[in-house]
Amino acid sequence: MRATKQNRMISENRRSIEQRRFPLTHTRNIGIMAHIDAGKTTVTERMLYYTGKVHRMGEVDDGTTTMDWMAQEQERGITITAAATTCQWNGHGINIIDTPGHIDFTVEVERSLRILDGAVAVFCAVGGVEPQSETVWRQADKYQVPRIALINKMDRTGADFFRTVEMMVERLGTSAVPIQLPIGSAESFSGIVDLISLKGLAWDEASAGSIMFDTDIPDEMMGSVLEYREQMLEAIADCDDDLLAKYIDGIELSEEEIKAGLRNATLSGKIVPVLCGTALKNKGVQPLLDAVVDYLPSPTDVPPVTGLNPDVEEEGTRLADDDAPFSALAFKITTDPHVGKLTFLRVYSGVLAKGMTVYNSTHRKFERIGRLMQLHANKREERQAIYAGDIAAIIGFKSVMTGDTICDPNDPIVLESMAFPSPVMSIAIEPQTKSDIEKMNIALSKLAEEDPTFKIHQDPETGQTLLSGMGELHLEIIVDRLVREFKVSAEIGQPQVSYRETIQRSAISNERFVRQSGGRGQFGHVVIEIYPLEQGSGFEFVNEIKGGVIPQEYIPAVRKGLEEAVTAGTLAGYPLVDVGVRLYDGSYHPVDSSEIAFSNAARIAFKDAVKRADPMLLEPIMEIEVIAPDDYLGKVMGDLNARRAQILQTDMHPKSGTQVIKSYVPLAEMFGYVKTLRSLTQGRATYSMEFAHYSSVPQSIAEEIISSNGFSV
């Protein structure tokens, strides 16, 4: 009651504490997403420069970017963590999250898209739609995030705007509609044509692109300009009945009507407007900012967020409104050496002011708001209050984890959380000294709290601490952070693959667990059938007990025993997947039966049944795309075949003369591949990799793995 009264007093006084910075309709929450090296961070740096947020352009190659602030990011020239910032453009507040492009850090993209209203997809004009472009596009589809696209690097040799648009249509299945055309390409790229206003735009290089001016549309382009403008108008009209009627009647649409129609079509996901430019050469960024404001949604343009009231188990909604009950989602946690735990929040409704008490409805705990922060990469600005639509951070939360809902104690709601992929690779770590043990444990727990795809567990056989992650680079960064940030000295073992086990047929087991050691004994009896499930199904438990042969109070114990049993298979001790269990018979003793007895009986019965169900070892298969010069195709293909690759297709890049090789390769064969590829191609080839599926391990290799784990073949 005291907290409620305190919250009400703070809420009533919030206008005097700190005014809302921008109206909700003038707020944009966007993410910059793309494949590795498409230019996301450079685009973000230019956006910050032209909006006046920073006064010096950071460069990825020089390690001077604002958004890539980690030492590991600056050294490698890649984005590892999603960095948040905010800027202003034409009276609008734009919250920007710059996301990584590497598949090892896909969790950063996943949780960012979960809380964003819109996104800018950046494509390389040379590479077009690349593998990770497809991955992040699918993630945006999953959360129904409206997008605009920027075809970047138009100044590069081999740049092809029109081919990239075609690839967007073919590979992404989207309605990509150019609203700009490039004037020239590669070295001749000098500006753009705006198809809405029918004007040419160019940039003054002496002012680092700050001065933008109108220019004539080249005569040789006029035919294609009119053709693509007509296609744009037709696409917009198809999404709006009123505009379609005018278009059919031959009535000229005004710029305002075109923009309004384009905005509505973008918000509904029917159209993806496509722009072009070169962020590195400072061309095309201001029109991109205009497009963010004109076509991407404000918090009021997206459907109200939905959730579940934990008290009455009923669905509820939250409108993007300052006067609605407060609700927010914690989408990221980081550890700062100076201030401690930072919790990133997206506020969906209501107002949060310093000193208020909020409710963690996910874990049913109360938290008091200490310090509120507006973020700018690794820099922070203290705030007194944050409002609906804001993205900010809290210092001092104790119980909040990634995916938790924070809300008004009087109006609880649990918003939909996030699902994260399971790790596919592990390494062993051993602290060098006794003093490093405690430091390492503290550091690992903090890193695991930050990153839901990073897991720590102990090998029951060897007692080793195992770190599991999404790939070699992911684990390499974790270890590097342990050394640099937490000053932990440790020995690192070779990477290990996260294998799985499954079964190939059904089997029945009838198991009694009986113990008698004086006094009350233990008795549990179960009859189960195990059976294979479709790939990706996980674990399934079906209770078919009838007539009370096993009392209802013991069924949860049976399930618990089964769930413990699936964590370690009988072949090599790896977790079992895609297995169903049917409990259909058993018996109990009125005195000696207990939950422990039934849990043990279920675990033993499961192990027994698995041995007779043709258990099989599974390994993670990765989808690999290698881009290599044509001269090295034979060497690359030969090496992939030696790694048990299944070649899916090879394509010739029509402009650059490179070969694109797509294949499935077992993860176990990919350790150290980057060094081999560089050696084979004199450093001219690149590759990307993402998890595809699990597949059976060949018998000869399976036997080696089983025996190396101390199991009998």
Structure in a nutshell:
With 713 residues, the chain is α+β, with helices and mostly antiparallel strands. It is 28% helix and 32% strand. The model has no long low-confidence stretch (mean pLDDT 86).
Structure description:
Helix 14 crosses helix 15 (595-611). Helix 14 (555-565) links the parallel strand 33 (539-543) and strand 34 (579-587). The protein starts with a helix and ends in a 5-residue tail after the last helix. An eight-stranded antiparallel sheet has the order 18-17-23-14-15-22-19-20. It is α+β, with helices and mostly antiparallel strands. The chain is 28% helix and 32% strand.
Outline: globular
CA(first)-CA(last) distance: 65 Å
Count of individual beta strands: 38
Helix content: 25-40%
Poorly predicted runs of 5 or more residues: none
How many distinct helices? 18
How do the strands line up in the largest sheet? 18-17-23-14-15-22-19-20
Average predicted confidence as pLDDT: 86
Report the oligomer.
Answer: single chain
Question: What would you report as the Rg, rounded to the nearest angstrom?
Answer: 29 Å
Q: Which class of secondary structure composition applies to the elements? A: alpha+beta
Describe the biggest sheet? 8 strands, antiparallel
Strand residue content: 25-35%
